Amino acid sequence: MPDSNASDWSDLDLLTVSEAVGRLDAEIADLRGRLGVMAEGVEREAVEKRLQLLGRARENAVAGPKIRRRPT
Amino acid sequence: MPLRDHMQLISVDDHLVEPPHVWQDRLPAAYREAGPRIVQEKTKGGPPADVWYYEGRRYPQIGLNAVAGKRPEEYGTEPLRYSDMIPGCYDPEARVIDMDLDGVQAAICFPSFPRFAGTVFLQGEDRRLALLCVQAWNDYMIDEWCGAAPERFIPIAMMPLWDVQACVAEIQRVAAKGAKAITFSENPVGLGLPSFHSDHWDPVFSAAEDADLPLCLHFGSSGQAPTTAPDAPFAVTITLFGCNSMYAAADLIFSPVFHRHPRLKVALAEGGVGWVPYLLERADYVWDRHRYYQNVDQSVPPSELFRRHIWGCFIDDVHGLKNRHDIGVDRITWECDYPHSDSHWPASRKRAVEVFADIPDDEVHRMVEWNSRELFHFPRADGTTRPGAGGSGV
User: Fold this and answer.
1) How far A44 CA lies from chain B's nearest CA (Å)?
2) Which among A6, A54, A67 has CB closest to B346?
3) For a surface tag, which of B110, B141, B266, B297 has the fewest beta carbons within 10 Å of its beta carbon?
4) Which residue of chain B is at minimal alpha-carbon distance from A58?
5) Which of B65, B83, B218 sits opposite A64 (nearest CB)?
6) DSSP H or E run through B49
7) Which of residues 147-206 of B touch A (CB under 8 A)?
């Protein structure tokens, strides 16, 4: 019988908000650096689009949970 | 340029964290108090912790590992509440944004609080409630989680493992609702259930065959972790975790399962694939010399059974890719493992470009997309499930 204090997760930690924001910030900084030396064109547009997505994900991460704690 | 833009990454091993309403929205009123619910508990000096309660039992991990392998003084550095998690863990719309960012098109998401194969409900004292809980999770997975983005999530269902006939009925029910896979324990013996070598599971496997639903065996779903010594550092266990997938594969290919169920498909979730050539070489060697005096099938070598029935997956596996032709390119799938910190999010696609750098295009496309689409019958939006089948997927 499984132990209620045990977990299948064992070594598999979840990404915390702080860890995720750290990863996003690193990616954003990297892309901004690349953007500074990129000419206009399709590749630049792709980087700009990715920067937008990264920013949105960062906002979601720090905004706090949008969970419903009561049944409908 | 092996990973081309038109190749869509399909992850066969991601995870979701159940939000508080999964069971409270779906259980009959009389069962809501006993059914899984989140209770906010006071903590010393911090915000309340979110803790699951089920039939009065307390489950301190809401889908994440608070303590395993860590010293008590390290407790508290891990998330204990939803606010510590990124929303993509528990919100399917936020998950899709995170997948877009990661360059991942679609994913199978395993359970968290119920454990990877729903084995928490084996603890249920009220079997009627336990069955309703299994069905509620499956309905949440199919209707709400996957329903939020049907082209992005591959529905997987858990089973009421304590009752074979109930499993059969649930397979038929979820198949009719659109499930594409079943999450099953890598080794039921670890849960106090009969082994793959018994005939106990035959009706379940027959039902899975009839519905053409692969069994996904996530490592750790037996509740057993590989250990060596009580005082060994946890790094030993982490390093050996893939052995659970090896054990499951060896167990199955020496069992009667695939002989009795020639259409059964098994997908090993996590554990990599680099070990496959060695294991099959060894298994065939053993079969060749030792099958005569044991209850082992005499007609088909275990390696052949593996190649007919078992798929593996990987995140990073240099040896696995080097040996892909020995494993079978059509038996390898890709995984992301979001939202574990093991994943490369938000750079999984970038990492995949590096991993597949020296692999021919057609093989990369098989491993990252087509093998999974074929295995789980999960076509692209244009209906294609395999290369060369028309549409824009080739």
Assistant:
1) 16
2) A54
3) B297
4) B86
5) B83
6) strand B49-54
7) 191-192
Handedness of CA B256, B272, B217, B105 (dihedral sign): negative
Decide if A11 and B346 are in contact by the 8 Å CB cutoff. no
Q: For residue B58, what are the β-bridge partners?
A: B53
Q: Which of A48, A71, A70, A56 is nearest to A20 (CA)?
A: A56
Alpha-carbon distance A30 to B344, whole Å? 16
- The whole-angstrom distance between A37's CA and the closest CA on chain B is 20
pTM: 0.92
pLDDT tens per residue, range B68-80: 344 444 444 445 7
Strands B9-15 and B104-110: parallel
Alpha helices in chain B (DSSP H): 21-24, 29-32, 92-102, 127-139, 164-177, 202-211, 234-240, 243-253, 257-260, 276-290, 302-309, 318-322, 324-327, 348-355, 361-365, 371-375
Sheet with B332-334: list strands edge to edge.
B156-157, B181-184, B215-218, B266-269, B310-314, B332-334
A60 CB-contact burial (10 Å; exposed 0-12 / middle 13-18 / buried 19+): buried
Q: What's the farthest any 2 CA atoms get from each other in chain B?
A: 65
**β-strand B49-54 against B57-59: which pairing, if any?**
antiparallel
Q: Which residue among B20, B58, B65 places its CB closest to the CB of A13?
A: B65
Tokens of B159: 């089973």
Q: How far apart are CA B89 and CA B61, in angstroms?
A: 14
Domain boundaries, chain A: 14-61
* Interface contact flag, B241 A11, Cβ < 8 Å: yes
Q: Cis before residue B346, ω within 30 degrees of 0?
A: yes
Chain A partners within 8 Å of B120 (Cβ):
2, 4
Instruction: Determine the longest span between alpha carbons in chain A, in angstroms.
Output: 62
pLDDT digits 0-9 by tens, B209-231: 999 999 999 998 998 888 899 99
pLDDT in tens, A23-67: 999 999 999 999 989 999 999 999 999 999 999 889 988 987 778
